[in-house]
Queue: 3 jobs
Job 1
Amino acid sequence: MRKKQVTTAVLTALICAGGGQSLVHAGHDENLTEYTLDDVVVEANRIQNKFGDTITEQSYYRTGGDVKVITREEIEKRHYKDITEAIKRIPGVTFNNPGYRGGEYGYQFYNNGVLINGDSRVIILVDGRRVDNAASQRIGGTSRRGSKSTGVNLDQVTNMENIDKIEVIKGPGASVYGSDATGGVINIITRKGGYKNYGSLDISSGSWRKHNYAVTYSGALEDDPTLHFFFSANREMSGDTKFKDGETGEVLSLSGSHYKESGVNFRIDKDFDARHSLRLWYNHKNGRDGYPVATPRAKFWNELDWYRILFEVVVGRFDGNYKLTDQGQWWTDQRQPGYHNIYLTRSMYNISNDFYNNDFDLVYTFDRIKGMESFARYYYQNHRYLGRDAFQFSRFGGGGGNGAGVGYAEYQATFPHGTTFEQWYAWAKARLAPFPAGDKDAIARWVADTGGLSPITDWHRERNQGLEVQYAKVLGKNDVIANVSYDIAQNYSRRRNRNGGYDISHLDRKTWTGYVQDKIHVTDKWDLTPALRYAHYSSFENTNVADTNQGKGSVGAFTYALNSQYMFDPTASMYFGWTRIFRPLREGDYSIINTEYPAPLRDERGNVLTVGVRKELGDRTTLAAHYNWTNMTNAIATLPIWSPSRNDFSAIAVNARQKATSFNITLDHDFDKHLTMSLSYDRMKDHWAAKEGMRLDPRWGYTDSDDVNTAMNRLRPANHYALNLSYENGKLYTGLLTNWYTGNNTRAFTARSFLLLDWNINYEATKDLDVYMVVSNLTNTAYETTFNARNGIGSSAMPARSVLVGAKYKF
């Protein structure tokens, strides 16, 4: 391969440092970043080692594998407004989004989920530190769904102005990331102030009354250039999102999906010398997001179907005296097509979910050698989530899983007891139905009838703090990293119960972890990295739930990893990795205990193998392929199992065997110095084996009543193709991202395939002013990224076409 010549500015920054080289590189000279590397090549504005791996400040952790890096330069030119938007171009990365921003605490389906290689067990890091909480009920909780998600909403971690790079690592990557990073790792690297004071102001506005404001200021003190600072603040807000219905083609407004989010953060770095530094980082992010639960199904949005659904879901479950009884078995789209349309009544009552995040990180680095850092770290996180509902429970069809979705006591108090259905019909139509259109007085009449109800709030608070110490040493051909950490995680929750009161619960869990990793430079062409990790987790009994503490005692385990990279020649290399997986049970894995399957859940265990090759096919073309194989001998799945005592199927969390494979291939090509292309294809497949004797619900898509694999693989597209084009010429930059999903099952999606286009353009009007436009979903495609059997097909329709126009001023 022809190596691009390193620029004069970069060459002058090369200095010797402990057997390696120190390279200073940045897209802007006012925001320099230091790396200490072995053998590096600067190509097309990327810093790579001899294996073709992109180098970052924290890439010394990595031990080979399929890694993609979103740089600050790309973030600036593409004007990504959240992390999900930034990483959706990465092959093998998929999302489960409910179709609107935010999500309800404790319910996986109503949150923004990320999957790597089809696996939701993804670890989120900030500057190499995990940001999840071991006692969290953030995703899972009492939803009776079970969850293997990380418990972190990716877009609530920090604002985009605070991010310097995003590393996306497919597969476990390295022992440092944890023994439960089955799917992969997303590492967010924060921005550090440079040597020159520099600021920016970014303002944009667009579809659906969307407005974004962001300001940054960074640099170093004039009388102490070794003290660097970075500050940013932002606010994002939007009115109700519009979506396109996949069955009718109508573009509708998703009432109740408006949001307002803000963030402030700063980072201060004191560089005592080349090997010693102190870093203080603070991050605050908060928001109030509307909670519409589901997007309406236009096919059934008519007066006849509205009253069919309303009568059979609600009135059909009243007793002879018109007393509301448990209607839980009617809460499915399978039994009531279009059922989730009743959720739209919630929008009249300004239901929302709020979050308040405060993160603090203090790191003292006492040595640096060959890019590896020895440090001591203290961190503290305090996250609070609030669910604001209008009444005791939400309106029709949303009551925290208890079946009394109308506000049990309030509804009975106002229901015209003993009347005929015709009388009730007229009463409901006047107060609750969305007909006639434009009736804005419905809420006022309801409040008057009920005597003036006040809103209620469920709240959840997560706190965790910890200490981490790392020591790195070069011993001949061995680069050794040893690390020990201690984390205290706490969770406090208050939830409204069916009796009108509150359930208070408290969870806490303490975690000790330690690992040692040895990157052995066997030859100039071959690195071998064995690693050993130990983790111990304390018990985490729920103080309020006595019957669900099976298997929640303290547990510890050793896990192992072996990774290797080999360079055949300067144009070709390969990697191999094996990791032993251990994922301890979390609160979100549990559902209500089924007495017919009383065996307690066990911790997840298994193995992950990754292998890949990279080949340069000339000066401008690179081909890479990645294969991932996961074999979980004791995975957790929530399956609809027949319950004789209930005489129905019930979703129960059980242990099962999981085998999953994923494959992706990427072709990168530079047509010339202006136009570049990245083309990729990926495919994922799961195979699950349930316990013998379990009868599964055929209505979930299973064949022969016991084939879980049929449904599991239908819940995502079979194939994903992506094309990313970038053109840059002087002051103009434009990019087009194409995502094509095929092989969708129409029992879960509204179409067999979805073709999505996102386009942006950036123009440097002056040296200090950029103007830009971003168009999402350019062709106004109707599509979904997830499916829920209860709510039905199309209940998570994603946003329609939107346009954002903005300007960024640098000072």
Note: The helical segments are 8-11, 72-78, 83-87, 303-313, 408-414, 421-431, 442-450, 708-714.
Job 2
Amino acid sequence: MSISDWRYLLRRMSALARRGWSSLRARGWRATLSRARVHLQPRVADTGAPLWFPPAAPFAPFTVPHSDAPAVSIIIPVYNHLAHTLACLRALAAHPPALACEIIVVDDAGTGDETPQVLPQVAGLRYHRRARNGGFIAACTDGIALARGHYVVLLNNDTVPQPGWLDALIGTFATHPRAGLVGAQLLYPDGRLQESGGIVFADGSAWSYGRFESPSDPRYAYVREVDYVSGAALAIPRDLLERIGGLDARYAPAYYEDTDLAFAVRASGHQVLVQPAARVVHDEGTSHGTDTGSGIKAYQVRNRAVFAEKWAGVLGQHLPVGSVPAPALLHRRQRQVLILDEAVPQPDRDSGSLRQYNLIRLLLEGGAHVVFVPTARAHGGRHTEALQRLGVETWHAPQLGSLAGWLRQHGARFHAVMMVRHHVADAALPLLRRHAPGARTVFDTVDLHYLRERRGAEVAGDAAGLRAAERTRKRELSVMARSDVTVLVSSAERALLRADAPGVQVELLSNLHEVAATSPGWAARRDVVFVGGFGHPPNTDAMHWFIGEVFPRIRARLPDLRFHCIGADVPDALRALAATQPGVEIHGHVPELAPYMEGARVAVAPLRFGAGVKGKINLSMAHGQPVVATACAVEGMHLREGEDVLVADEAEAFAAAVVRLHEDEALWSRLSANGLRNVAEHFSLEAARDTVRRVFLD
């Protein structure tokens, strides 16, 4: 090791020792030990996209995104450090947002480099130079006065915004209507997490939550309320910023103005959120260094006292100094609800997932903090990210090890635990009794598996299948007996359980759908559609029967009619059958169902066995699309034959019903209107709200 290496090591150790001693005095030994562990632990790989940096190159004029009618005004205060500013602007230019925006650079009268000569050459940039140096707050305030967008974004010049950051940041206001201030997830250039929202303790001191950890760690990767967000990258509606008086000048020239802003936004009745999907690399300390003993950075110490005095009445409710922030503490004022399932829901692929996704939405709207643990431990890609954007603490490997170990650490914080499907519940119940003894255990059947298996075996004439269904029945009933509440989706299943398990406490929570505000009428539609995943045996059987026996009869009467078969995992045998039938189009999985729900005139549900409530019927009716179904398919759905739905079980009768509904505008219109009413009354989110509160939150 060279002399320079030894010098670096000594300086590094000396700095760590000073910071450790300072932390011991300010935060206590528990919090200090927690931070030390982070420094010493092995790095955990980030599951997000690789970080993007602009290539180093001499300056040449380029163009940044700009608009004369911006939705967003990005304000970048600068004081020298031209290289950082250009890197930030090049990142914005390389990956322009979908939103119309303007970029305003406010030069705080810097004199140390060529910023005044270079930045006017960047096309589309609004460059404003102050007459005299006033500090960060003064520069931001000038930029806010120049802003024309509905939203104001404050962005440090020592940042490199990652692709998609702005659309994710601003999109948070649509998915979280109470949001008033949203901050990005800040990363170090080496990919480690710098901050995923901030914690403010009772004395006004702050903690950068997640510092030096993996940015994809489940504890830091979901949208959540925070005490503050860093002014390095935040967004706020411009009218709200004006109503609360902008940045408080008492913190001039800099530090604690962003923390104060967050407290003011919260005092106005809005939420302060961090959006981890908005990733911004921040070269912390570029402008003012990290030494709080001298220079501008010293104002951080002074302004903490100013802040603590201003917000003394609020700070008493915050965590005491020395606390080690963790999800259990951060959500201590909420009901915490755990959901255990094999994998995260995929609402664009199956109706059970859509029901679960909408249940989660209802829990969040009810004020709960929802935690999702997939027992298979896999990261579900965009579906995991969708839950995190809702605000769900969603776990996965490598941070999620064994379920037993995870529950040992986290189980005590839960008010209720929902176990989805009997095989998940059977394995989880003993662990929950040990590690979450205070939690209400809720068994979600999704559908009665033993009933579906029994009916499938009866249709196939399978004696071995009947014996397997009986074994499933015993397992399901055993789980029900050991759970506090069993959730069913169908009144028909509830009636069956009165005989099979009369002592079980049962609640009805059926499919959950949003009713379309408007839907195209009869004349704007044509053709027939089926939606259903083919990992579900009843769907495969239904399509073999419909394509092979029913659709040829329909096609004989309506020779131009097309049939659209939609669903993931289509078996080869079904594709081969479809190829022999003119007019049949096998689409497989489609990312967006709305064009088929609003374009096809008739939906079919030709199920010959199954259980539960059929999401495919609810989905069609929620879009004003009438349905022809079998008696099995409409079981327990509060539907009247001839008024809400057409029902037929034989091939000829089913074909005749489809033809009649497709051609009779008056019949179609009556069933369309009644189907919408049925979903609103029995299968909407509003219809389920009281049940969700009673089962999970009371």
Note: Residues 288-295 have pLDDT under 50 and may be disordered.
Job 3
Amino acid sequence: MAAVADATTAVAPLRKRISRPMVVAAILVGWLVLFAVLRGRQTLTLAAADLTDLHRWLNDVNDSIGANRNSNPVFVYGFNEIRLVIDNLVTFVQSLISQPADGRPVPQIGWLGVVGLTGYVSWAVGNWRVALLAVAGFTFFGLQGLWQESMDTLALTLSAVIVALLIGIPLGVWAGLSDRFNRIMTPFLDFMQTMPTFVYLAPLTLIFLIGGASAVITTVIYAAPPAIRITAHAIRSVPATTVEAADSMGTTRSQQLLKVLLPMSKRTVVMGVNQTIMAALAMVTIAALIDAPGLGKTVVQALQSLDVGTAFNAGLAIVVMAIVLDRVTTAASVREEAARRAGHRFTAWRRPLLIAGGVAAAVLVYLSHTYVWAAEFPGQGTVGSHIASAADTATTWLQDHLSGLTNAFRNAISYGLLNPFQTVLTDSPWWLVGAVLAGLGAALGGWRAAVIAGVCVGLLVGTGVWSDAMTTLASTVVATALVMLLGVVFGVWMGRSALVDRLIRPTLDAAQVMPPFVYLVPFLALFGATRFTAIVAAVVYGAPVAIKIIADGVRNVPETTVEAATSAGCNTWQIITKVQLPMARSALTLATNQGLIYVLSMVVVGGLVGAGALGYDVVAGFSQGELYGKGLAAGLAIVLLGVMFDRITQAAARRTRA
């Protein structure tokens, strides 16, 4: 027994000395050694035009579904009916504000009526400042020469948001009231929010074809999870004492919901509506790849032809629409509190002013419905042509004068970091990469993460696009490393300084509002159509969320701990590296998780501007029928990468908190 005790006490210090960083380092060193010996063997390389048996089978499935779409009962009485209902909704909304209908040369409500209604609704749910912003923003669409494209985008967004909220809010209420249903829904919501936007397109076009209706269905599936999750959180956040008080008064379950839970959670639910609208707008623009009308189609066509000016003009319109919709819904969530601060005098005047504003908006709607001058936006959109011309001029200047700097930066990252890492991934035997990923999963997240990584690797091999998946993995990891570098630098700065936080956070909030498409445009001007454009855009897209998470983590380090380190003689660098960052490890891990998911989404979208790999496979699958199966397999590969990243980093975050 004494010998056993001695052995146990001897092993304990050894376990303490072998830390997770040491295990990770050992795995990576072992990988490099085996790579040097086995380079180029069993790499599962597949040429761009080659197909596997799985890809051919998926092509056959696509052809079979197309041939039997109007005879198979599942489609005749199921999917086709769903598509018809959504198509009727989209057509109705488009006929109101964007497309001619019922023999009219213009929509039912012209530009003057839309601007008037937008201003009135923004004022009614928010305040006069956001109303002015909304009116100015919508007028700007017309000045850009993009009125109809903007209204098409708005029509698809509104259609998707209506359906998403009709589904999401009741499910969210149910999840908020029922622990069992919440446990059932949580894995599905996690999975849906992990998937990059690109992934939704291919399988849904297989079922619902392409067009506006399919774009709305896709958008509903993507945008509903925030509404469900935030509504459930709002219901669960109502104080238990309030619910108990309602119980003691003899209220029924439905009375509690309608009179207590929903009113007290209204502000949070409106925030969920905000997130749903932002997600819908982002998805609607990307859905241009499946022939959705609107600003997204203009951006896609411009990116494919490398027309930076047109892409910038349309991208600017998307940004303006995102800002307007975000500001209006954000103002709506805080309107009652703002009204209380303004006092009863404001409340007394508000109702008569709203009635007068409603009458004015109705008059503008009537004018735009009756007269052509009020229906068609005047002018030729010369502001937009000037913006596009200025963007082209700026692009030419940047390429002429900064090409040396941009090329040096691109080459430094590409040749110093990206290319070597990509070579190690793509030229290693597939089973070696799989073993490394499973080992890293075990070291960082435990055996469950290792099992998930192993399963994902096996399925990735089965998709037949292993080499492209490794190329995407290389770009994603490099971009995430850059995101974390920015996140640590700016997050620590913001976490340590309230002034810096107040100055930088609004910019980060605005950056998170913009749909991912928009990020490609300026970097296309700087770096041309290369994979590096996608990587830089992914870094800029993923950095805001990482910076904010790290800033909050650093700020939450107890002030007494920092003061104790200061009194012990630690300088600023020592406080950051020895106290604040170690104590914010869970925030760092969470930032890595979110950064990876954002980056993967953006790297894949970069397939439109020369990023290649899985993003290109998906895009090619839409444009070339014989590659549809390969594009669908590439979409599955993207999902597998996302699930693997998410599971490993979430497990690592849980172990860090423990």
Note: The chain is about 85% helix and 0% strand.
